[in-house]
Amino acid sequence: MSKHGFRAFCPKAVLFDMDGVLYDSMPLHARSWHDAMQFFGIAMRPEQAYEYEGMRGVETIRLLAKQQWGRDISAATAEEMYRKKTELFASCQPANMMSGIMKVMDKCRAHDLTVGVVTGSGQPSLLRRIEDDFHGFISTDHIVTSFDVTHGKPSPEPYLQGLKKLGVMPYEAIVVENAPLGVRSAKAAQIFTVAVNTGPLADELLANEGADLIFRNMHDFADSFSEIIRCSGL
Fold it and tell me: What is the pTM of this model?
């Protein structure tokens, strides 16, 4: 509150990232990214998918192409390359819901918090599942995807759009992220950010981006959820 000049922290909503938060989908994304980029002659280690997670796929490809080929590629070319990655991901077995995520959803409901999703993904196979898997918790008009923004994470635009869709101010929201670029995006939007480190990256990378709290899994986060809300004074 002191840092941003807010007079209160009074959560009314929770904004969740999707991959690695709602779904245990990052290992599938990592393999799909590696195989797709290899097809086009771009080197991308599977673990790099976690480093670039949250960024719009087209932006990730253009960045990698610039680094490795020394030239800019068009958005249309990047879109064509991203379609290959999308096809590979769609051919994978469906990702499981993240262990413990429904415990967190139940906590949101118990504290009367509205739930939204802010993802850099445009992966139709997962986006279509959200309303079914989280029926009664998440509605489609509370979801921000790569199609809703001009600039993806780490820009604050996705989370600012999430605040707008849910009709809340930054001091009325909590973000749940798992990726450094996602944390950076949320903090740039001045939102209290919880990082749940469900991937292989060091906690330090999330802390360096400004995560306010870091948990190792969703179960630990769920167990501390009520205490976090009590600390807000609600």
Answer: 0.89
